[in-house]
Amino acid sequence: MNPDLTRFCAALGFIGCALMAAPPANAQESSAAQANNPLANSTAMNFQNQYNQLTGSDDHANQFLLRYARPFKAFGGDWLMRATVPVNTFPDGAGSHNTGLGDVNIFAAYLLDTGNPALSFGIGPQITLPTATDDNLGSEKWSLGFANVLFNASSPTFQYGYLLTWQASVAGDDDRADVNVAAFQPFGFYQLGQGWYLRSAGVWTYDFETDNYAIPVGFGVGKVTKLDRAVMNAFIEPQWTVDHKGDGQPDWGVFAGINFQY
């Protein structure tokens, strides 16, 4: 397997569109405006899928991402924990694909008091565990790093922010390529009314080991629906890579999901 694909998908495993639903608001417009806050003080369960057609070949890769997020208190402050369990389908280099469990990621973000309830800012550590069921589906490395996220919901019409992460391998199989990758996810959401919104949340990646990178840009649509016991956020976002270096990067893709907040 192309090591660039391994590291790119490792980045997607913990950052790739990490957005989750926010708590229900009194008004439908407020609920929709907050529905993509990645630092929401609420429990969330997300079912997401990232499909990518790859550069340098006619091949593809896919990640189904099961995500669970829960707020907690520690060290005198508020935190948000999120765990990501990926199911990967990657090319095996012999004209076929392998499917199985990928590398599990967990991060905890400390929520800083910005003085503005509409402005969320968090930063904290993250760890990626070598849990892949096949060598082809993960890095075979233990990696440590950080995540930093900002979400600005000052406007009920347009919300924006970013998610910045970095991780590097600290232990694992010496025969496998080291992990040292950063990812930057600028995101924006434009509310159309009645729960509908437009979205863009492509994940830009940079590999410090190879200097390879990818800059995908997305444009999609979503719908926020208030259920009896949850807020449901369903979306689909086609993405196109406007610049890249190295084979095994995403050429184009589709990110879709259904997020539930309780």
What are its keywords?
262 residues; mainly beta; 15-stranded antiparallel beta sheet; 15 strands; 60% strand
Structural write-up:
The chain has 262 residues and is mainly β. Helices cover 8% and strands 60% of the residues. It is built from two helices and 15 strands. About 5% of the residues have low confidence.
Helix content: under 10%
Q: How would a crystallographer describe the biggest sheet? A: 15 strands, antiparallel
| Count of strand segments | 15
Order of helices and strands: HHEEEEEEEEEEEEEEE
What is the radius of gyration computed over CA atoms, rounded to a whole number of angstroms?
A: 18 Å
Euclidean distance between termini CA atoms: 39 Å
What's the mean pLDDT score? 89
Overall geometry: globular
- As residue ranges, the low-confidence spans are 16-27
Helix/strand/pairing class, anyone? Answer: mainly beta
Number of helices: 2
Strand content: over 45%
Concise description?
The protein has 262 residues and is mainly beta. It has two helices and 15 strands.
